[in-house]
Specification:
Elements: H1 3-7, E1 14-16, E2 21-22, H2 23-31, H3 37-44, H4 68-75
Antiparallel strand pairs: 1-2
Helix pairs in contact: 2-3, 2-4
Bound molecules: FE2/S2 (inorganic) cluster (FES).
Amino acid sequence: MTKEEFDKFDDDYEVCNCMGVTLKEIKDAIKNGCDTIDAIMDETDAGTACQRCQSLDEDDEEEKDIHLSEILKFSK
Ligand code: FES
């Protein structure tokens, strides 16, 4: 994913469907100091169920359009 593609996602986009966590909630967690996927998971519960939204490594079938790993990369 490129930064341009990342920027097209609205803040209310639901990144983690299992736990109902939006892009804004994840961006806020990063702003508040979460700098690893584990920290984001602890703070928001995103990624704690099926785990596919964590990263492409966890998402073999590429079911998710965006992952915590990419949000972390582009929100820093
Ligand atoms: S979509 Fe995030 S844990 Fe399943």
